[in-house]
Amino acid sequence: MAMKPPRPCRHPGCPVLTRDGWCEKHRPRYTRGASDAWHWMYSLPVWTERLRPAQLTREPFCRECAKAGRRVRATVVDHIVPHRGNWALFVDPANHQSLCKQCHDRKTMREQCEERQKGRRGY
Ligand SMILES: [Zn+2]
Ligand SMILES: [Zn+2]
């Protein structure tokens, strides 16, 4: 069986020859990028100085752990409905919940999983 001939990267102007259409530099990353797009919002003073500390004062313990009867100090303010860059959802205190890092990481992982499945279906 003959190997497919290499073809140039699909990125406009990129001369690198590839086997699957993308060079290492231009291969699209489906799992990353989306959450980075609004990461800057978390460095705004309205978040770091007001909304985040306000939520952690209001609810100092992890909400997920509390459901399981554990008292774990929360370190992360999470958005119940993922805001995806939506300002109203981002700043709405009713959409904030306190989580410990472990619960937050688990939730993020679950969301990314669902996101990826949605993306596949769209193909
Ligand atoms: Zn390329
Ligand atoms: Zn927790």
Describe this structure in words.
By secondary structure, the chain is of the alpha+beta class. It has a domain of 85 residues. Helix content is 37%, strand content 10%. It has 4 helices and 4 strands, in the order ββααβαβα. The strands form 2 sheets. Strands 1-2 form a two-stranded antiparallel sheet. β1 and β2 form a beta hairpin. It is elongated. The two termini are 29 Å apart. The model has no long low-confidence stretch (mean pLDDT 87). The structure holds zinc ion (2 copies). One zinc ion binds next to α2 and α4.
Bound compounds: zinc ion
DSSP strand content: 5-15%
- Show unreliable segments: none
Helix content: 25-40%
* Overall pLDDT score: 87
Number of helices, where a helix is a run of at least 4 consecutive DSSP H or I residues: 4
Q: Give me the secondary-structure category.
A: alpha+beta
Topology at a glance:
Blueprint: E1 7-8, E2 17-18, H1 45-58, H2 63-67, E3 76-79, H3 87-91, E4 96-99, H4 101-121
Antiparallel strand pairs: 1-2, 3-4
The protein binds zinc ion (ZN) (2 copies).
Write a concise keyword list for the protein shown above.
4 strands; alpha+beta; two-stranded antiparallel ribbon; single chain; two-stranded antiparallel sheet
In short:
The chain has 123 residues and is α+β, with helices and mostly antiparallel strands. It contains four helices and four strands, in the order E-E-H-H-E-H-E-H.
